[in-house]
Design goal:
There is one protein chain. The protein is an alpha+beta fold. The protein has three domains: 2-222, Aminohydrolase, N-terminal nucleophile (Ntn) domain (Glutamine Phosphoribosylpyrophosphate, subunit 1, domain 1); 236-371 and 488-547, HUPs (Rossmann fold, 3-Layer(aba) Sandwich); 556-624, no CATH class. The chain contains 26 helices and 19 strands. The strands form four sheets. It has a six-stranded antiparallel beta sheet. It has a six-stranded antiparallel beta sheet with strand order 4-5-6-7-11-12, covered by helices on one side. The protein is globular, with a radius of gyration of 24 Å.
Length: 624
């Protein structure tokens, strides 16, 4: 696990400075504290920071092929690299290391751009072919590992994190107004957006190629797509067997490591299943790490402890206190842009805690998306049934009720969602809805983005889905937005800030492709979320874990903001140095805080989003 950076100047005689590359890699040193490396050849420069996990002695990067004509920098893990190595050796390729990195470069020699289709793992890499003057980059199928890039008329700059791109110098830092709208809609930037207008994310399952000859040409290509193709021919028992067998194989592959390894254990179905399967493949107790809260409705420690006891794990836990709000500055600097997921706080704490004992952990991320585990799946399906068939009638009836209800009223959001088209209501399920953002975001910004509002991207994903099944369309939407832009982004940034590698076996693409064939009626059955997954794992998990209501990785901000942190919020918003007014309406912010304090609605996530944006503006201002 590492951090990568690179610069490709479009003119051959415009040399890349190693000092610039070092400045970029130093900014992401936490991603790889064990080693650094650089490759510079006139207008191309590659930089690397390493967290040593596999082949500790010879895993230095950048790495080249036999004649030094092709160079690679790679962030991630390839779990089928030994199988690919055997294949390549039979083709005559000679290896000088035992790394998965070298497997990629020889596979590229053998298959060209199609090499990426054969990789089983999480990855973001760049390959420079000095003979053809072509740069080939790729990101894994689900976007587990990050890849940002910036291009103008003179250069392409890329890196694992935005901060490294900014360190390259001469970067246009104009903010993306569409990204600001997306942030307040969902708490993160969707699609390929970043907070900076000219810095983009390489989408999951996508490659980027920049050829310099005969003229510079940038090409983005999708090499993998999600295809839900339900197979109704199998019985529940057959699906249960296949789920257990396939996930067990994925977990075993994800346990390959030359350094100490453990697991995050929340007490939910997904992480508990991972720990159960890890225990089957380990001869020694698994180290498990959990987070708890003093507030009982948020505390799942008893379920984590039940799993730890059943599988005799070496279990560690920590209690999160209200004082953890002071992580705000650290979290914002980790993400480089506004990011409002409140669970970043406990994820950061458990990552820092686990990194004292291990260098690698496995997590259960991805299970909710693949098996329809989120509470909003049955909720949105129910809302869809309540809607009229005509969008105009929905807007007239439910929209009128929504306008009448006070902002502090508990059912305010429900009537807003019901006013939308029944097929696309999932696009509107977020933080501040569009009508609220019309009051929150300054008019100049709204006038600029005009019709290109945040919901339009999600609407397009829902309507362009080839599936006739609504739950399946919601799964596809979440995998392409919420999972990659929020869940996986959160885990990558806060874990790598603590030099900890997190692996996600549920998102092994072969296991995921199996789940795409399971009918949604077996994922959400008679109101039971993750039905078939629970059935597959129930012989391995205690009843209390299988049957307890989903809580999610939430924190008690609702209570903290009304009590211990009330003064903290007011001091931030009323600070004379507050920069929020340039972008949002302070009066509406104060009204949101006031409505939350009345106790009718829980608006803590919206308040947190505003605090994060304020902190990001503060840090961004000091860095300019």
């Amino acid at each position: 696990m590492c951090g990568i950076v690179g610069i490709l100047n479009l003119e051959q005689d415009n040399n890349v400075s190693i000092e610039t590359l070092r400045s970029m890699t130093n900014s992401i040193i936490r991603r790889g504290p064990d080693d650094e490396g650089f490759y510079c050849n006139q207008n191309i420069g590659l930089g690397f920071r390493r967290l040593s996990i596999i082949d500790l002695a010879t895993g230095h990067q950048p790495l080249s092929n036999e004649d030094d004509s092709i160079w690679i920098i790679f962030n991630g893990e390839i779990y089928n690299y030994q199988e690919l190595r055997y294949f390549l050796q039979n083709k005559g390729h000679k290896f000088k290391t035992h790394t998965d990195t070298e497997v990629i470069i020889h596979l590229y020699e053998e298959l060209g751009d199609d090499c990426v289709k054969h990789l089983r793992g999480m990855f973001a890499f760049a390959i420079w072919n000095n003979s053809t003057k072509k740069l080939f980059c790729a990101r894994d199928r689900f976007g587990i590992k990050p890849f940002y890039y910036y291009i103008d008329n003179s250069k392409l700059v890329f890196a694992s994190e935005i901060k490294a791109i900014l360190k390259s110098g001469n970067i246009d830092k104009s903010l993306s107004l569409e990204a600001i709208d997306s942030y307040f809609a969902y708490g993160h930037m969707t699609s390929n957006l970043s907070i900076y207008q000219h810095i983009k994310k390489l989408n999951p399952g996508t490659s980027l190629t920049l050829s310099l000859s005969p003229l510079p040409k940038l090409e983005l290509k999708t090499y993998w797509e999600i295809h839900f193709e339900p197979d109704h021919s199998k019985t529940e028992a057959q699906w249960m067997d296949e789920i257990e067998s396939s996930l067990s194989d994925a977990v075993k592959l994800h346990m390959v490591s030359d350094v100490p390894l453990g697991a995050f254990l929340s007490g939910g179905i997904d992480s508990s299943s991972i720990v159960a399967l890890m225990s089957q493949h380990s001869t020694s107790p698994i180290k498990t790490f959990s987070i708890g809260f003093k507030e009982k409705p948020y505390n799942e420690l008893k379920y984590a402890e039940a799993i730890a006891k059943k599988y005799n794990t070496e279990h560690y836990f920590q209690i999160v206190e209200p004082e953890s709000i002071h992580l705000l500055s650290t979290l914002v600097s980790s993400f480089d842009e506004p990011f409002a997921d409140t669970s970043a706080i406990p994820t950061y704490i458990v990552s820092k805690f686990a990194s004292q004992f291990v260098s690698v952990v496995l997590s259960g991320d991805g299970g909710d998306e693949l098996f329809a585990g989120y509470n909003h799946y049955p909720q949105l399906a129910f809302l869809r049934k309540l809607n009229f068939n005509n969008r105009a009638i929905n807007n007239l009836f439910w929209g009128t009720i929504n306008k009448i209800l006070p902002a502090s009223f508990r059912g305010k959001n429900l009537t807003y969602y019901l006013s939308k088209d029944k097929e696309t209501v999932g696009a509107y399920y977020g933080l501040f809805n569009q009508s609220e953002r019309n009051f929150l975001i300054n008019r100049e910004i709204l006038n600029t983005i005009n019709k290109n509002r945040a919901e339009s991207f999600k609407e397009h994903l829902i309507l362009s889905s080839t599936s006739n099944d609504y739950i399946t369309r919601l799964q596809n939407l979440d995998i392409k937005t919420y999972m990659v832009d929020e869940i996986l982004t959160k885990v990558d940034r806060v874990s790598m800030h603590n030099s900890l590698e997190v692996r996600v076996p549920i998102l092994d693409h072969q296991f995921a492709e199996l789940t795409f064939k399971i009918p949604s009626s077996l994922k959400l059955k008679n109101g039971t979320q993750k039905y078939i997954f629970k059935e597959a794992m129930k012989n391995k998990l205690p009843d209390c874990v299988i049957n307890h209501k989903k809580q999610g990785f939430n924190i008690p901000l609702e209570h903290w903001f009304r009590s211990e942190l009330k003064d903290y919020i007011n001091s931030r918003i009323n600070d004379r140095n507050c920069l929020l007014s340039e972008y949002i309406n302070i009066k509406h912010v104060k009204q949101t805080i006031n409505n939350h304090n009345k106790g009718f609605r829980n608006l803590s996530e919206r308040i947190w989003a505003i605090l994060v944006f304020d902190e990001w503006l503060k840090q961004n201002s000091s860095n300019n």
